[in-house]
Specification:
Number of domains: 4
CATH class of the largest domain: Alpha Beta
Distance between the termini: 58 Å
Pfam family, one: Competence
CATH architecture of the largest domain: 4-Layer Sandwich
Oligomer: single chain
Number of strands: 23
Strand content: 15-25%
GO cellular component, one term: plasma membrane
Main location: membrane
Subcellular location: Cell membrane
Organism: Deinococcus grandis
Radius of gyration: 28 Å
Helix content: 40-55%
Strand order of the largest sheet: 15-14-13-12-11-10-23
Length: 722
C-alpha cells in the first residue's frame, strides 16, 4: 500500500492547479483524484504534495496566461521585422517576441528580414479546426516568450542561412539527397517539418497526410524513440569498448543536454530527455532501473512547472499517454505465444498499447484512426533503428556525410514507400470525443487493466468493451442530425446540409492567392469533427476559387456519392482540378438544372438556378442556387448570384436565407427580400478588402426585419432543420 512514488500525487496536484487557472472545473476532480491516491496507498503525509502542487500549478499557469503581449500595439499594421527563423517561429529581439509566418518561407532556418501584416492569433471558430490561439499559449513558458502573433502575406526581404552547429548539422542531413529525402531527414532528426509539409507524392497526396493515415506520423516528431535509439546505440558502442557502467551510462546523460539544444524543442522530446536522463543516471550510479511510473511523473512535473500550458498541447498528451501505456509492454507480451521471437512480441505489445493509450486524443483531435498502424509500425521500426543513428552521424559529419547519405537516401526512400503504401489504406473516421466518450473509454480501459491483472475474466472485459462501443454509437443513431451548418472558411463559402439519410456539402471554400488548403485543413477536419463520414452530394456552385478550390481535397479525403455543377467550364483551372479529383475517385458529375430535386427524410432539396439554356460570361450569374424545404420550413442558398438573377428565381417565402456573394452590395436585393421575407439571413464572410458585407446590404436586411448572422463574427453557425 505504500508504493506510491511521491512525484505522482505532486504532478496530479499540478495538473489540477493548471486546469483551475484555465477556468476548467476538471481541476477540482484532479485534486480529488490526487487526494484519493494518497489515501488509498495509506500515505496521508503526501496529501500536502497534492495541495502544494495545486498551488504551484495554478501560479505557474496564471503567470503565463497573464503575461502582456508585446505585439498588441502593432496588430493590423503592415510591418517589417527581422529575427531568427527556426522553421516554426520567427524570434524577434526588439520587441522580445515570437511570430509565425504565413505562407511559410521556402528558405530554411536562418536570419530573416520579412514584411507582412501582423495579426492576432485566431481561436477555434470551427469544430475540429486547428486552434491557433490555444496552441500559441501552449508554447509559452515561465522562461520563454509566448508566441504573440501571425505575420500574414509574409514576403522575405533578406535571408541568411543558419550557421553554427545547427547549420553544419543540417547540411550533413541533406547533402547529396533529393529534396524529399532531405526534408524527411530534417523532420526525423531535428523535428523540423517545414520542408516535409510542402512535399507531395502526387497532386493532392501530401506526404504528411500519408504518414498520418498509415499511423506513422509520430516518426516525424522527435520523441522517446529517437532518444532510445541514439542512447542505445551509444551504450552498445561503449559496451563493446569495455567501458565501465559509470561511463557506459554516464556519458549518454552528459550528451542529452546538448542534444536537446540542437533539436527543435517540443513537449515529447523534452519528456524523453528528462526520462532518459533519470534512468541512465540511476544505472550509472548502480541503483538499477527506477520505478517507471515515478520517472514518468517526475518528467511531467518538471515539464509542467516550466511550461504549464503544455498540458493542453496535443504533443504533450500523446507523449505521456503513450509512454504510460508502454509500461505494460512486458505484461502484454507475456500473453502472446512464447514461441514467437521476443522482439516481435514486444513490438506487437508496444504498438497495440501505444495506439490504445492515445486513442481518444488521436480520434478527437485528428478525426480519424489509422487501421494499419500495427503492420506499418513494425516494418517502419526496423528502418528507424538504422536511419536515426546513421542520420545523426551524417549530421555530425556535415558536408562530409556524402558517402553515408547514399545509405540514408535508400533508407529514407524505403520509409517513404511504406508511408505511401500503407497510407492508401482506409481509416476509421471519428467525430469529436465528448464527456460520454471519455467515460466510455475510461471504463473500457479499466476493464482491460483488470483483465491484465487477472481480476476479471476475458468474457467480462470483452462485454464491457462492446457495451462501451454500443453506448457511444447509439446517440447518433437515436437522434440523427437535422441541421444546416455554415462553416467559417474565412472569405469564402461552404455549407453543410445534414439529414438522417442525406448529407450535402455546398461548396468547400478556398483561399485566393494563398497556399493554404481550406479543403484539407478546415472543411475536412470540420466534417470529421461533426461525425460526417461520407457525402451524398458535393455541390460546386460556380468556378470561383473562394467557393470550390477546397472541393478537390474533400473529394480525395472523403467518400462522395456525386458532384453537382452548373456550367461545365473547360477553361477554368480551379473547376478543372475539382473535376479531375472526381474522375480520380470515380465520382459521377451531374450538370444540374432548375427543377432538379432530391428528397429524403421528409425534406426536399431543389435546384432553383441555373436554367441552363444560356450561360453568362460572368461566373457569378451561373451559380447553382438551392432551396431546402422540410415540414413547412424553407431555406435558400444562392451562391454568388447578383440581384438581377435573384429576382428571377421565384424562391418563395423563406425562413432562412443564405445571402449571396458574401453580402456584396450587388446581391441580396430589396426585390428578393420583399419576395422571400426571411426572418434570418446568414452571411458567409471573412477578413477581406471588398467591403463585404456591404453596409447597404445590412441596411436592407434591417429594413426587411431579417436578423443578420455573420461567420466573421460568430464563427461556424449551426441551424436546426425541423
Amino acid at each position: 500500500m505504500g508504493s506510491l512514488p511521491w512525484p505522482v500525487p505532486a504532478v496530479v496536484g499540478v495538473i489540477g492547479g493548471i486546469l483551475l487557472a484555465l477556468g476548467q472545473g476538471w481541476g477540482v476532480a484532479a485534486l480529488l483524484v490526487g487526494a484519493g491516491l494518497v489515501l488509498w496507498h495509506a500515505r496521508p503525509v503526501l496529501l500536502a504534495l497534492v495541495l502544494l502542487g495545486g498551488a504551484v500549478g495554478w501560479a505557474s499557469a496564471h503567470a503565463v496566461l497573464t503575461r502582456p503581449n508585446a505585439l498588441t500595439p502593432w496588430f493590423g499594421a503592415l510591418v517589417t521585422v527581422q529575427g531568427e527563423w527556426d522553421g516554426q517561429f520567427l524570434t524577434l529581439r526588439d520587441p522580445p517576441a515570437r511570430v509565425t509566418l504565413a505562407p511559410k518561407p521556402t528558405q530554411g532556418p536562418g536570419q530573416l528580414r520579412v514584411s507582412g501584416r501582423l495579426l492576432a492569433p485566431e481561436g477555434r471558430r470551427t469544430p475540429g479546426v486547428f486552434d491557433q490561439a490555444a496552441w500559441f499559449r501552449a508554447q509559452g513558458g515561465l522562461l520563454s516568450v509566448t508566441p504573440g502573433g501571425a505575420l500574414v502575406g509574409a514576403r522575405v526581404r533578406e535571408f541568411q542561412p543558419q550557421g553554427g552547429l545547427r547549420g553544419w548539422f543540417r547540411r550533413g542531413l541533406t547533402t547529396g539527397l533529393t529534396e524529399r529525402q532531405g526534408a524527411l531527414m530534417q523532420a526525423i532528426e531535428l523535428g523540423d517539418r517545414g520542408d516535409i509539409s510542402r512535399e507531395q507524392f502526387s497532386e493532392g497526396e501530401a506526404v504528411r497526410d500519408a504518414f498520418a493515415r498509415a499511423g506513422l506520423a509520430h516518426l516525424m516528431a522527435l520523441s522517446g524513440q529517437n532518444v532510445a535509439i541514439l542512447t542505445g546505440a551509444l551504450i552498445l558502442l561503449l559496451t563493446r569498448l569495455g567501458a565501465a557502467p559509470a561511463w557506459r551510462f554516464g556519458l549518454p546523460v552528459l550528451l542529452l543536454g546538448p542534444y536537446l539544444l540542437l533539436v527543435q524543442s517540443s513537449a515529447s522530446i523534452t519528456r524523453a530527455v528528462l526520462m532518459g536522463g533519470a534512468v541512465l543516471m540511476a544505472l550509472a550510479l548502480g541503483r538499477g532501473r527506477p520505478d517507471p511510473v515515478g520517472v514518468i511523473a517526475l518528467a511531467a512535473l518538471a515539464c509542467l512547472l516550466l511550461y504549464p500550458l503544455w498540458l493542453t498541447d496535443v504533443g504533450f498528451q500523446l507523449s505521456f499517454l503513450a509512454v504510460l501505456a508502454l509500461t505494460q509492454s512486458e505484461r502484454v507480451a507475456g500473453l502472446l505465444p512464447g514461441r514467437w521471437p521476443r522482439w516481435l512480441r514486444l513490438g506487437l505489445a508496444a504498438t497495440l498499447l501505444a495506439e490504445a493509450g492515445t486513442l481518444p486524443v488521436i480520434a478527437g483531435t485528428f478525426g480519424q484512426v489509422p487501421l494499419v498502424g500495427l503492420p506499418a509500425n513494425l516494418l517502419a521500426g526496423g528502418i528507424m533503428a538504422l536511419l536515426v543513428p546513421l542520420g545523426f552521424l551524417a549530421g555530425l559529419l556535415g558536408p562530409l556525410a556524402l558517402p553515408l547519405n547514399v545509405v540514408n537516401g535508400v533508407l529514407a526512400d524505403a520509409l517513404l514507400l511504406f508511408a505511401r503504401t500503407f497510407g492508401q489504406a482506409p481509416v476509421l473516421s471519428w467525430g469529436q470525443v465528448g464527456v460520454g466518450g471519455l467515460l466510455a473509454y475510461a471504463a473500457a480501459l479499466l476493464a482491460g487493466w483488470l483483465w491484465l491483472l487477472g481480476r476479471v475474466r476475458a468474457p467480462a472485459a470483452l462485454g464491457t468493451w462492446l457495451a462501451c462501443l454500443l453506448l457511444t454509437t447509439l446517440p447518433g443513431r437515436l437522434h440523427p442530425a437535422r441541421e444546416v451548418v455554415f462553416l467559417d472558411v474565412g472569405q469564402g463559402d461552404s455549407t453543410l446540409i445534414r439529414l438522417p439519410h442525406l448529407t450535402v456539402l455546398v461548396d468547400a471554400g478556398g483561399s485566393v492567392g494563398s497556399d493554404y488548403d481550406v479543403g484539407a485543413h478546415t472543411v475536412v477536419p470540420t466534417l470529421r469533427a461533426l461525425g460526417v463520414r461520407k457525402l451524398d452530394v458535393l455541390v460546386a456552385t460556380h468556378a470561383d476559387t473562394d467557393h470550390i478550390e477546397g472541393a478537390a481535397s474533400v473529394l480525395r479525403q472523403l467518400p462522395v456519392g456525386e458532384v453537382w455543377i452548373g456550367q461545365r467550364k473547360t477553361d477554368d483551372p480551379v473547376l478543372t482540378a475539382v473535376l479531375l479529383a472526381a474522375r480520380e475517385r470515380h465520382v459521377p458529375v451531374r450538370e444540374v438544372r432548375r427543377g432538379d430535386q432530391v428528397t429524403s427524410d421528409g425534406a426536399s432539396l431543389t435546384v432553383l438556378w441555373p436554367a441552363g439554356h444560356a450561360w453568362s460570361t460572368e461566373d457569378n450569374d451561373n451559380s447553382v442556387a438551392l432551396r431546402l424545404e422540410s415540414r413547412g420550413w424553407r431555406a435558400a442558398f444562392l451562391g454568388d448570384l447578383p440581384a438581377p438573377v435573384e429576382e428571377r428565381l421565384v424562391a418563395g417565402p423563406l425562413d432562412l436565407l443564405k445571402a449571396a456573394h458574401h453580402g456584396s452590395r450587388h446581391s441580396t436585393g430589396a426585390a428578393l427580400l420583399a419576395q422571400t421575407t426571411p426572418a434570418d439571413t446568414v452571411v458567409s464572410v471573412g477578413r477581406n478588402t471588398y467591403g463585404h458585407p456591404h453596409p447597404d446590404v445590412l441596411t436592407r436586411l434591417a429594413q426587411a426585419h431579417s436578423r443578420a448572422w455573420r461567420t466573421d463574427q460568430l464563427g461556424t453557425i449551426r441551424w436546426p432543420v425541423p
